[in-house]
Amino acid sequence: MTTSQPLLVAFDLDDTLAPSKSPVDPRVAQQLVDLARRVEVAIISGGQIAQFRSQVVDNLPDATDALAHMHLLPTCGTAYYRHDGSDFALQYSRDLTDDEKSRALAAVEEEAKRLGHWESETWGPILEDRGSQITFSALGQAAPVAEKKAWDPTSAKKSALRDAVAARVPDLEVRSGGSTSVDITRKGIDKAYGMHQLAEQTGISLDDMVFYGDRLDEDGNDYPVLAMGVDCVAVEGWEDTSDKLDAVIAGLPERA
Question: Cα–Cα distance between 99 and 146 in angstroms, integer?
Fold first, then answer.
């Protein structure tokens, strides 16, 4: 199996399919539908389902036939949605307990303040309880893309915060997320977990999947997929992803 002939194609969302927290470009929206008419399509990201809807689902062209072949895994695969004919319906959610949430929230806030990474000017809340994931967003979820990119261009701030929080809650999974975020879930749940769930839910072998991501470096939140041995394609922004997909789609026959 090669990247040009997969049975399932999975994507990161922010900075892979679209700019951070922004809608997908119409070109990408059409490509996702065209791809889903050929193979299974999955999106795995740290965002919650509302973000998937506003960035992707609400911008797809009319394609009822393709939606049944799309898989949405928000909060790094801690939740999983499939289309039931009328809407994307929840299949599972690996929620944190109240104790896990309170310890995670306290640890990330206290460590961010200790390290000097708790900002006074933000666009929305810094901390979010996403049920199955606690997310720290240094500038808030609605911060402009340019501000996010400028906050931590080398990822040094996020890495330091991740390490400090991980030491405080060793029973939980702490990961560097998007451009300004740190995500906390149950231990062992990351994008690799989501890929395993896709294999279980669809019956498609990991060997027949390919994953596109912009953070496949060792500190990136896409790296667990590469480390598990899934065929991966590194991209530099949604335009790069879209350019690469043109060739992939052209080489795949439409589903009968």
Answer: 36
pLDDT in tens, 193-206: 999 999 999 999 99
d(CA 165, CA 182): 9
Task: Using alpha carbons, select from 206, 215, 205, 203 the residue that is nearest to residue 241.
Answer: 215
pTM: 0.85
- pLDDT, tens digit, 9 for 90 and up, residues 202-237: 999 999 999 999 989 888 889 999 999 999 999 999
Cα separation of 66 and 154, whole Å? 38
Phi/psi of residue 2, each to 5°? -120, 170
Structural contact between residues 105 and 135, judged by C-beta atoms closer than 8 angstroms: no
| Distance between CA atoms of residues 233 and 222, nearest Å | 11
Count Cβ atoms below 10 Å from residue 53 Cβ, excluding itself: 16
Sign (positive or negative) of CA dihedral 249, 251, 254, 255: negative
Contact at 8 Å (CB) between 106 and 120?
no
> Looking at the chain, which runs of residues are DSSP E strands?
8-11, 40-44, 70-73, 79-83, 88-93, 127-129, 134-137, 172-176, 181-186, 209-213, 231-234
How far, CA to CA in Å, does 78 sit from each of 73, 90, 115, 184? 7, 11, 28, 11
